Amino acid sequence: MSSSSRSSARKAKRRWPWVLLALLLAPLAYAVALVWLPVPATPLMLWRWVNGVGVTEQSWFWQRRWVALNKLPTVIPQAVIASEDNRFCLHGGVDWLAVQQVYEEWQEGEGLRGASTVSMQVARNVFLWPNQDPIRKGLEVPLTYLIEALWGKRRIMEVYLNIAEWGPGVYGIEAAARHHFNKPARKLTRAEVFRLVSILPSPLRWNPKQPSKWGRLRVASLGQRIAQLGPATQCVK
C-alpha cells in the first residue's frame, strides 16, 4: 500500500466516529425541533407519493393541513385511544403488558398480532422507513422513549392526528374530515369521528362513508369504550 493510500485510510478511520456521532445526534436534534414545529413530512408520505398513491390529475401532491390538538373536539383523541391504544395515558411508550399478552397468546398457538402503541406508531412514522425489518423494529423502541421524554402525551397525540393516513394521499385529521365529510375537523359529529377512527387499521381499503359490517361494529362500540376508559383518557384533555 502506498503512503498516500495509508494516509487516506487513516483519515477515513478518524472520520468514522464523527459520522456515527452525527447519525446518533440527528434524530435527537430533529425530535427536539418537533417539540414546537409541525412535522414537515414522514417517510411514509414520501414513499406513497413516489409510488403514485393518491396522485391524480386533480391533485399531484398529498392532502394535509396541520391542526393543533386544542383546536379539535376532545372526542377525537379519546376515540383514537379507545380504538388504537387503551393504555396510552398509562404506559411509558411501550405497553409491556400488551407485549407479554401477545407473547403468551403466541405460545398458546394463537396468531401473532401487533402490540404497537400510538407512541410507537408515531416514532416509527416520523423517523423510520416504511418497510418492516428487524433493524427498524430495534430502532423503534428507543425512539419511542425519546419522544415520550421530550414531547409528552399531548404532543405525541397531536403529531399522531396530523400524520396518520386516512386514505390514498390523505394525511391528518383535518384533511381527512375535509376529504371524507367536506367539513373541518372541529365540526365533525361524534358519529363522523367514530367512522374516521374506525378505518385507521386499513385506511387504503376502508371507507368511513361506506363502512363494512365489521367497520359498523367498530363504530358502534367506540362510544361505549370511551365511557369505560373514563379517566384513562385524561392525558389528552
CATH topology of the largest domain: Penicillin binding protein transpeptidase fold
Number of domains: 2
Main-sheet strand order equals 1-2
User: How do the helices and strands follow one another from N- to C-terminus?
Assistant: HHEHHHHHEHHH
Output the structural class: mainly alpha
Helix content: 55-70%
* Total helical elements: 10
If you had to describe this structure to a student in words, what would you say it looks like?
It is a single chain. By secondary structure, the protein is mostly helical. The protein folds into two domains: 1-33; 38-236, Orthogonal Bundle (Penicillin binding protein transpeptidase fold). The chain contains ten helices and two strands. Strands 1-2 form a two-stranded parallel sheet. Helix 3 (75-84) packs parallel to helix 9, helix 5 (118-127) crosses helix 6 (134-150) and helix 5 packs across helix 7. The mean pLDDT is 87.
